[in-house]
Amino acid sequence: MNDIALQQTPVLVVGAGIMGTGIAQVAAQAGHAVLLHDSREGAAAAAKGKLATTLDGLVARGKLAADAAQALLGRIQPIHAVEEAHGAGLVVGMTTYMHIDAVHQRVEIGSTWYALGAQRTPLNTDAKRLLLAHAFEQLHCIAVEFRSHRLNTPSRLAIERLGAQLDGMLRSHQRAADGSLRDTAIYSVTAAEWPAVRAHLDWQLNKPRAA
Q: Of 25, 1, 19, which is closest to residue 11 (Cα–Cα)?
């Protein structure tokens, strides 16, 4: 992907809750300018303030350099009126952290969807690379999970292309709206596997592509 173009175009994140602020942090850490929008008066600014406190804690524990924390915060601009986001990058999908287990230092990456124009592009690989790096290198997770319906072959193949390994199957895990039972395939990447998976993803993102 064209990193220079992406970093010059602000990324609009709508919603300054825990999830939105986390997405803003990951994007800013990757070098992107971020517009953090929330319709609630002062909510985006308050979220940035809480993030600053979190980063101060990382700096105090020696896990983040002070200048890096300051640069990250400088890339995030809270906005209240959506009109202030004119010229920001279009939202083309979503992928996020789920089932965050702070005690056992595990997260799941899921709730993934992309617009048709973003499918079959490097976007998903790039997004997962950012989220995995943040989980292992900043949150110090011991493992990151991915889940999919047993019969959702495209989703399972996409997870496997990331380098995740199949842990097993939760049989009759959930009941669908039509009453049918869902079997859930569970995959994961462990902290020990992350360096090899990271190298694989970097190769996928940088390999020559047909014009």
A: 25
3-class SS of residue 13: strand
- DSSP count for the chain of H helices, then E strands: 7, 8
Q: What is the 3-state secondary structure (H, E, C) of 35-95?
A: EEECCCCCHHHHHHHHHHHHHHHHHHCCCCCHHHHHHHHHCEEEECCHHHHCCCECCCEEE
Q: By C-alpha distance, which of 101, 133, 104, 106 is closest to 201?
A: 133
Phi, psi torsion values for 36, nearest 5 degrees: -100, 110
Side chain identity at residue 143, one-letter code: A
Ramachandran area for residue 56 (φ above 0: left; ψ -120 to 50: alpha; else beta): alpha
Residues 132-159 pLDDT 10s: 999 999 999 999 999 999 999 999 999 9
> Residue 181: left (phi > 0), alpha (psi -120 to 50), or beta?
beta
Q: What is the pLDDT of residues 2-51, one digit of tens each?
A: 443 444 678 888 778 887 888 889 889 888 889 888 878 899 999 999 99
Task: Kindly report whether the global pTM for this prediction surpasses the value 0.85.
Answer: no
The full set of domains in the chain, from first to last, is: 1-91 (3.40.50.720), 93-211 (3.40.630.30)
